[in-house]
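Hi U.,

Before I forget, here's the chain from the pilot set. I'm dumping it here mostly so it's searchable later in email.
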Amino acid sequence: MKMELGSARWVLGIASIGWLVALFLPFVGDIPGWQVLAVGEGARSADTKITEYVFVWLGFLGVGVCTSLVTVSRRFGMATAAWMISTVALVSSLLAVWLRKSSTGVAGTFQHGPGFYLEVVAVLLVVLTYIPLFVRKTAVAPELLRNQPSEIDADIADAQLNATRTHQEQETNPLLVDDRRANAARRHNRSN
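Structure:
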């Protein structure tokens, strides 16, 4: 199913381009992001943590690949995958910052560079841009909603009718009527 992106298409496109540009900026120390993405020797020498690798890989999939494809194809399934992957990448970026800031030794000497923070901003922008796209109603939705209930309404109406009949039958069935008090009152009046 195709999505109506509207002005969000430009935001997603800018975020994708920004993320790809950030790959060539310093990610950790002087090491560019593409070396972390490719698990290069420079990334290993900067004591890159697993959370930073996960962030770059998921960011590349969610923002670099899937979001770029969404801006071109406008496919809802691809947008959903891009949003989910980007959300996990955003969480892993927080863990990467925490792990880098709390590290001692070699990892403590290398700080995140502007490329890392530009990637985080791009991922955050993508995650926040997808949310309104998923929750807003489109022009296609009312047409789908009009067609869907007709099939469901008949089943629901039958179930409600059966439930009402069963309830009415219980009230009028002489075997199910609780008249013990009335019978006791009649017996009491006869004995007096």
